[in-house]
Amino acid sequence: MSEAPILSVVIVSWNVREDLRECLRSLWRNGEGLAMEVIVVDNASDDGTAEMVRQEFPQVRLVVNERNLGYTKANNIGIRLSRGKFVLLLNPDTVVHDGALRALLACAEAHPEAGIIGAKLLNPDGSIQRSARSFPDIGAGLFRNTLLGRLFPNNPFVRRYLLTDFGYDAVREVDWVSGAAMLVRREVFERIGLLDEGFWAYCEDVDFCWRARQAGFAVLFCPDAIITHKIGRSSDQKLAACLIQHHKSMWRFYLKNYRRRYPIWSFPLIGLGILLRLTGALLRVAIHWCQLAWQRRRKAIALSSLIAPDDPTEEKTYRHFQSALPRAEKGKRR
After folding, report:
1. At what angle do helices 204-214 and 239-257 cross, to 10 degrees?
2. Residue 150 included in any domain
3. Is 231 left (phi over 0), alpha (psi -120 to 50) or beta?
4. For the chain, what is the total number of helices (H) and then of strands (E)?
5. Looking at residues 105-115, what average pLDDT do you find?
6. Distance (Å, rounded) from C-alpha 39 to C-alpha 59?
7. Cβ-Cβ contacts under 8 Å for 179 (sequence gap 6 or more)
8. Is residue 185 located within the same domain as residue 307?
9. Axis-axis angle for helices 49-56, 17-30 (nearest 10)
10. Inter-residue contact 172 to 166 (CB < 8 Å)
């Protein structure tokens, strides 16, 4: 077996072939001269992801699951296979900027007390994603993405949760960082174990940082490690199911880690709040779907009115307009 690399990159993919291709290209551009291995764990994609990795990136260690095992379990598969001193958990819908990998490793070497280091995540338009946060509390749950939050947008609970006073321009110790680009020192896994597979997806990064801090490791944010994150390219394919899973994970995090933080009588209220928050999110999704369906219907009516179907000389053109509708809509969704 070859000498162990300094860095192992673990990526979990599900039907994001084009995003994964761009991610892997950015990794190899930045990994030149770096002792690095890349492990891709594919959760039974049906878009040709595995074939693309085999053909275009033969240096990648590819694991193809027979079914979708969830984000957390698939990550653990990759972590068990990894050999590096550091493990970078990286989402497939990311693009690694020049120098980001070395910046993460340099930060880790400069701060041996840090078990977990998060990158500076940017949206595709260049704006900052608030990927370094405080641990959630009841106040954040009541005001974050809820009616109360819209009524009181400058409330202190959400500001504290999102660290809105932080400019993302300096190394800072935080409670948790996003698992979209999270560097983990191997000693952390050896001491606290892998990601909790009770979280099928979502909140597994919050829980992991919680456990690491409980074990005495620091969690740091590194401003020089810049990575673009497109957010939700897998989850958007099954938005309603992912919303349900996200809120289930929120409930699990509260039950698992906050039993001694809040009185027992408060947990039914927390559960009710999470349920109401989920209901509101699903209603917004349903309204959005109805709006899209109505827009498609209006476009169909508008196109149909351009050609009179009872005119035999124009029947062929009319059928062309009708067949073009689904193709146009499919292309727009892409």
Report:
1. 20
2. no
3. left
4. 12, 11
5. 98
6. 9
7. 89, 91, 204, 205, 208
8. no
9. 30
10. yes
Distance of CA 324 to the CA centre of its chain: 34
- How far, in Å, CA of 64 to CA of 148, rounded? 44
pLDDT tens column, 7-41:
999 999 999 999 999 999 999 999 888 999 999 99
Q: Nearest 5°: CA angle at 195, between 111 and 190? A: 55
Strand partners, 218: 114
Shared domain for 273 and 191, answered yes or no, is: no
Res 334 pLDDT > 60: no
pLDDT band for position 300 (cuts 50, 70, 90): confident
Q: Are 23 and 11 in contact (CB under 8 A)?
A: yes
Q: Kindly state the average pLDDT of the residues 141-163.
A: 85
Give me the chain's average pLDDT, please: 87
Statement to judge: residues 188 and 321 lie in one domain = no
CA separation for the pair 293, 234 (Å, rounded) = 22
Query: Which structural domain, as residue segments, surrounds residue 272?
Result: 263-334
State how far the Cα of 157 lies from the Cα of 138, in Å rounded to an integer: 9
Residues 51-64: tens digit of each pLDDT: 999 999 999 999 99
DSSP line for 39-87 = EEEE---SSSHHHHHHHH-TTSEEEE-SS---HHHHHHHHHHH--SSEE
pLDDT of residue 234: 54
DSSP letter string over 260-274?
A: TTS-TTHHHHHHHHH
Q: How many domains does the chain have?
A: 2
Distance CA 301, CA 304 (A): 5
**Contact by Cβ (8 Å): 188, 116:** yes
